[in-house]
Amino acid sequence: MTDIFIGNQTYFPEITRKIPFEGIESDSPLAFKFYDEDKVIAGKTMKEHLRFSACYWHTFCGKGSDPFGPGTQNYPWDAVNDPMTAAKHKLDAAFEFFSKLGVPYYCFHDRDLAPEGTSPIDSENRLMELADMARERQNATGVRLLWGTANLFSHPRYMNGAATNPDFNVLAHAGSQVKSALDATIALDGENYVFWGGREGYTSLLNTRTDIEIENMARFLQAARDYGRACGFTGTFLIEPKPMEPMKHQYDFDAQTVIGFLRHHGLENDFKLNIEANHATLASHTFSHELQMSVDAGLLGSIDANRGDPQNGWDTDQFPTDIYDTTQAMMVLLSAGGFQSGGLNFDAKLRRESTDLEDMFVAHIGGMDAFARGLEVADYLLNKTDLKVRKTLRYSSFSHGKGADFQMGKLSLRQLFSHAESMGELKQTSGKQEYLENLINQALVRA
């Protein structure tokens, strides 16, 4: 990160310096208590481990609206009537925010960065004009693009999906958007490109051919991959699972569903998963479960960091503050060797009632501190307790003898029967779940 970026005007005049690390004794809401970007843990700095990113859409395009009322958040970069001029103001505000917060990455949808034009070529020209400006600001700040994507869900044309739409003409329009968004991502040296199938699903089988829709989604992803690779994109393509909302049945329900889809269509060498915590909740899973399934398949790419409300079955996209949850997520990530090209992107938004510009910083600081503390605790649990040893011992019967033979595919069902007959009744072995849960609570204090 270089100097704090300020464009033609200052949008956050009350924030006069990059947010500092002050430690747990600090009472300042505008200081990190746990995120010390230069602190080394398990051979890497916190900055290298966590690879934080701020999202463009909720942070700069969201205004606090909900189904029952318009937005409550009035930001200075929106006080311009011309859409392209407003987009340029928003870009300057975004990079001032990124540099003052101290995140190394950001993410965007195409329509976040530039407003839609009157035709695909007009939309592309607008997007590339803003991408050129973003490139200049990346060079000025050192902030990089973690991933780009196309918004294939907001426009009314996508009410029945994009790649899975029953109308080929809509699918072609979606293809034009992805082509332009990929061009912008490549121009900005984006490290990944994301597909979020917000409306890739269906509501009723009475009017749906699921076989056609799923096959078309695979063909669409293949076409995008082929175009990206032909244009020199060497990064990772990511799919973000989500079970429902807005569609009733979405084809990318959870990590295991997406993993099976990728393998079935031969896409697993180019595509990985972008796991969002709130989407895991909606699928009746935990955040750490979805991460572990992706890791086990060798397909964890990146993370959208947020949380849901357990009393609300909606994608609330709240900032993550549960250190118990971030600890378990970081245990999975550390055990897997960390990110390759992904990062922790805050796909999170202020509450409707939070209307001060300062709140944007306070919210991100809280999320960054929650994951930084989770990283510290996870490292402590993995290296200074017997948690790993106990997990290894629980599966030790597969490391030798008949268990090892089974793991190597050498035992038939008849041989399993004979082995069971020779043993007699087995002694119960405790899983020690409560002991391990208590270890986490202890580590939250000791680490």
TrEMBL record:
<keyword id="KW-0119">Carbohydrate metabolism</keyword>
<feature type="binding site">
    <location>
        <position position="276"/>
    </location>
    <ligand>
        <name>Mg(2+) 2</name>
    </ligand>
</feature>
<dbReference type="GO" id="GO:0042732">
    <property type="term" value="P:D-xylose metabolic process"/>
</dbReference>
<feature type="binding site">
    <location>
        <position position="276"/>
    </location>
    <ligand>
        <name>Mg(2+) 1</name>
    </ligand>
</feature>
<feature type="active site">
    <location>
        <position position="109"/>
    </location>
</feature>
<feature type="binding site">
    <location>
        <position position="304"/>
    </location>
    <ligand>
        <name>Mg(2+) 1</name>
    </ligand>
</feature>
<dbReference type="GO" id="GO:0005737">
    <property type="term" value="C:cytoplasm"/>
</dbReference>
<feature type="binding site">
    <location>
        <position position="317"/>
    </location>
    <ligand>
        <name>Mg(2+) 2</name>
    </ligand>
</feature>
<protein>
    <recommendedName>
        <fullName>Xylose isomerase</fullName>
        <ecNumber>5.3.1.5</ecNumber>
    </recommendedName>
</protein>
<dbReference type="InterPro" id="IPR036237">
    <property type="entry name" value="Xyl_isomerase-like_sf"/>
</dbReference>
<keyword id="KW-0963">Cytoplasm</keyword>
<feature type="binding site">
    <location>
        <position position="240"/>
    </location>
    <ligand>
        <name>Mg(2+) 1</name>
    </ligand>
</feature>
<feature type="binding site">
    <location>
        <position position="315"/>
    </location>
    <ligand>
        <name>Mg(2+) 2</name>
    </ligand>
</feature>
<dbReference type="InterPro" id="IPR001998">
    <property type="entry name" value="Xylose_isomerase"/>
</dbReference>
<comment type="subunit">
    <text>Homotetramer.</text>
</comment>
<keyword id="KW-0460">Magnesium</keyword>
<keyword id="KW-0413">Isomerase</keyword>
<feature type="binding site">
    <location>
        <position position="347"/>
    </location>
    <ligand>
        <name>Mg(2+) 1</name>
    </ligand>
</feature>
<feature type="binding site">
    <location>
        <position position="279"/>
    </location>
    <ligand>
        <name>Mg(2+) 2</name>
    </ligand>
</feature>
<keyword id="KW-0859">Xylose metabolism</keyword>
<comment type="similarity">
    <text>Belongs to the xylose isomerase family.</text>
</comment>
<dbReference type="GO" id="GO:0009045">
    <property type="term" value="F:xylose isomerase activity"/>
</dbReference>
<dbReference type="GO" id="GO:0000287">
    <property type="term" value="F:magnesium ion binding"/>
</dbReference>
<feature type="active site">
    <location>
        <position position="112"/>
    </location>
</feature>
<dbReference type="InterPro" id="IPR013452">
    <property type="entry name" value="Xylose_isom_bac"/>
</dbReference>
<keyword id="KW-0479">Metal-binding</keyword>
